[in-house]
Amino acid sequence: QAVPAGSHVRLNLQTGEREAKLPDSKSGDRDTREERRRRRYRHARHWDGWAVDVDANSFTSQELKKALAKMKESEKAERKVSSQFLKQCRDVRKKFRPIEQLKEEFEKLNMKMETDYEIMVKLISKFNSSASTLDEKVAALYDLEYYVHQV
Questions:
Q1: Domain tally, the chain
Q2: Which of 38, 49, 95, 131 has the greatest number of CB atoms lying within 10 Å of its CB?
C-alpha cells in the first residue's frame, strides 16, 4: 500500500497491525478540537490492504460494520489468550508448594530446611567468630564463595 512521503509508520505490537499517520501540523499553533479529531481519523491501517480516508464523514455503514466485527473478533481472541494464560498459571501453582509449607513438612520429619541466605549468614558468623580455628574459617570462606557465586 502506498503511503505519502513523510508519514509516520509503525507496527502496533498489541494488535499486530501496521499503522501509518500523517505528520502533525508544522505550525506551532495550538490545534483546535476539530483538528485533533480529524488527525485521529487520518491513521491508515494497511494490515488488510485498506486505508482510512482523511475525511471523517466518508465512512459507509458497511465499513463501520466490518470495523466493529473486526474489533469484536480481536477482543474475543484476547480473552481466549488471557484465559489460557490464567489456566497455565493455575497449573503451575498446583505443581509447586510455597517454601513455608515445605519447611513445615520437613520439620515434621525432623529435618531443618535452610535457605541460601540463612546458610550464608551462618558462614559469615563462623568466619567472624574468634572461637573458630583457621581451618574452619578457610572452609567457611570456600563455602561462602560457592553461595555468593550463585547469587
A1: 2
A2: 38
Which residues are CB-contacts of 15 (< 8 A; sequence separation ≥ 6)?
74
Note whether 1 and 22 are within 8 A (CB): no
Query: What is the tens place of the pLDDT at every residue in 10-32?
Result: 878 778 788 888 777 655 445 55
Sign, Cα dihedral of 43, 48, 51, 52? negative
In whole angstroms, what is the distance from residue 122 CA to residue 114 CA?
A: 10
Same domain? For 125 and 93 the reply is no
pTM over 0.85: no
Look up the domain containing 74 and give its range.
Answer: 59-110
In the sheet where 44-45 sits, what is the strand order?
8-11, 18-21, 44-45
Pair 104, 135 in one domain: no
Contact indicator for 136, 126 with CB cutoff of 8 Å: yes
What cell does 13 get?
A: 505490537
- Give me the helices (H) in the chain, please: 33-40, 61-95, 99-108, 116-128, 134-150
